[in-house]
UniProtKB/TrEMBL annotation:
<keyword id="KW-0812">Transmembrane</keyword>
<keyword id="KW-0472">Membrane</keyword>
<dbReference type="InterPro" id="IPR032675">
    <property type="entry name" value="LRR_dom_sf"/>
</dbReference>
<keyword id="KW-1133">Transmembrane helix</keyword>
<feature type="domain" description="EGF-like">
    <location>
        <begin position="108"/>
        <end position="119"/>
    </location>
</feature>
<dbReference type="InterPro" id="IPR042350">
    <property type="entry name" value="ATRAID"/>
</dbReference>
<dbReference type="GO" id="GO:0045669">
    <property type="term" value="P:positive regulation of osteoblast differentiation"/>
</dbReference>
<protein>
    <submittedName>
        <fullName>ARAID factor</fullName>
    </submittedName>
</protein>
<feature type="transmembrane region" description="Helical">
    <location>
        <begin position="125"/>
        <end position="146"/>
    </location>
</feature>
<dbReference type="InterPro" id="IPR000742">
    <property type="entry name" value="EGF"/>
</dbReference>
Amino acid sequence: LDLSNCSLHSVPPGLAEATTAIVLDLTENPLTTLPNDSFLGFVHLQSLAVPLALECPGGSDAWQDVTVDRSSRLCQGQRNPCNSSVELAWPCPENSVCAPDGPGLVQCLCDNPFHGYKCLREGTFPMLLFGGILGTATVSLSLLLWGTQRRKAKTP
């Protein structure tokens, strides 16, 4: 994805849709900062070129090789932060596993069959019970409102 020399002053909002990009060039743009979540979900990104004034997203530890030339910084080989020997700031809770979510970013995914807040619930979501209660409440409320409000409806 070549966004070089596009006069970008900030990361375009549509960039979030390009999470499958492998190579991204942002050089020759007057970018001043890269917000931390700019590359959230960019797990396939292997080569990123940014203006010299900017650091590689996630820091130099998030990349295998960072090279600097006259006008740009090239970040290559995104590292998996889950395989790092450095202790994570927020380790994943019990019953979950760490997964990369972009340069220097991680997410915690629940192991099967756990789900819910901090992966504390075991089993599957009770879809039938949830749907039954929601459907019953909707039908009951609809019948109540129809019965109480139909006398107010005028016939043509």
